[in-house]
Amino acid sequence: MSQPVDSGREQLARAARRHSTATVLYHHAVAERLGLGPSDHKCLDLLLQHGELTGSRLARMTGLTTGAVTGVVARLEAAGFLHRRPDPADGRRQLLRPVPERVEEVAAVFAEDGPDLDRLTAGMTREQVDAVLTFLSRATDELAACASRLRARALLVGAARASSRAPTHPERAEEDA
Amino acid sequence: MSQPVDSGREQLARAARRHSTATVLYHHAVAERLGLGPSDHKCLDLLLQHGELTGSRLARMTGLTTGAVTGVVARLEAAGFLHRRPDPADGRRQLLRPVPERVEEVAAVFAEDGPDLDRLTAGMTREQVDAVLTFLSRATDELAACASRLRARALLVGAARASSRAPTHPERAEEDA
DNA sequence: TCGATATCGCTTAGGAGATGAGCGAGTATA
DNA sequence: TATACTCGCTCATCTCCTAAGCGATATCGA
After folding, report:
1. pTM for this structure?
2. Nucleotides of D under 7 A from a protein CB
3. How far is the CA of A75 from the C1' of D24 (A)?
4. Contact residues for B5 (Cβ-Cβ < 8 A; gap 6+)
5. Domain-ending residue, one of B114, B137, B158
6. CA-to-CA distance for B145 and B147, rounded, in angstroms?
7. What's the first-to-final CA gap in chain B, in angstroms?
8. What does the pLDDT look like over A62-81, one tens digit per residue?
9. Last residue of a domain, which of A114, A130, A146?
10. Which residues of A touch B144 (CB under 8 A)?
């Protein structure tokens, strides 16, 4: 292996890649455990992190069409994970928020069959944990930005193919995640 | 907020959760960019990390049925991402391996629209980067183990429902990922 | 103030992809 | 050698996503 710096970077790239794959597989397994599809779980996750969202916002964040989101919301509501109410400020909108009791069940799955954070940081100093925290936070922002870039580019290609005529499709990806 | 320790743990949990969601969304966006479905991308990822796998192993690792894997392999092969050859040691098996040239295209997508690792670790000492590396590595193992546990449990439930008669379904999840 | 345009969530038709079951071929075990 | 298992594949079926378009509401411009 070349210099320690390059070796370290490659090591990190590999580790991040493997971690990424493991995360995706785990996320899918959790969804199945909850009796949800991957998209449903994704949306529920976003809902838990944001507290309250509209359907269109959810569509923009996930890259799903509004039609797909309608299905997701219907399933999540039927399963009792989600409560919806009309937006008092905008008659077109629905405000979606997770249902606390059901959310606790989700949290229970994570507690029972999720990674043990204490074990992950065992033997680390506060400074080292902070470094991990910084890395995760930066990576989250980067990933969200990259995903939005990728989706925006895909839309441009799609728009070029269909030329003008904007469909129901999300007009532009959202950097927020 | 309570004690700094608890606060730190919760902070880490939240960061990990957000990072996880962002990862899943990014993974999906990359798949679309490559013209692949999420499962296809997942399998390709595993193939890239392991070099060569059999179909049944892929099914066990992803939790997909063998029927689904047949479709995944057919699509990946048609798209030129994958080469397959019969296992000389076992006439039933097919050995699947990624095609180098196409893999470079995938790598190009990551390079162009992937997170910049240097920026993520900017300002960190070697020791801090090592901490991140340790965390990622441990988390990867934990996630793989948890996913396999979840899937194994789901299979038990399924087996209890269908009682005996094992289907084509993956008999047990694999810890390896 | 009022018409034009956008956005919201929903619906529908159609298709892609996953499941679940079962098959023949090949391998391991008794 | 006979039996049980594993491999990858096929088929019918189902679920979920896309693409397109609709009515209702909101916003902007003249």
Report:
1. 0.89
2. 6-12, 15-27
3. 24
4. none
5. B114
6. 6
7. 37
8. 999 999 999 999 999 999 99
9. A114
10. 22, 25-26
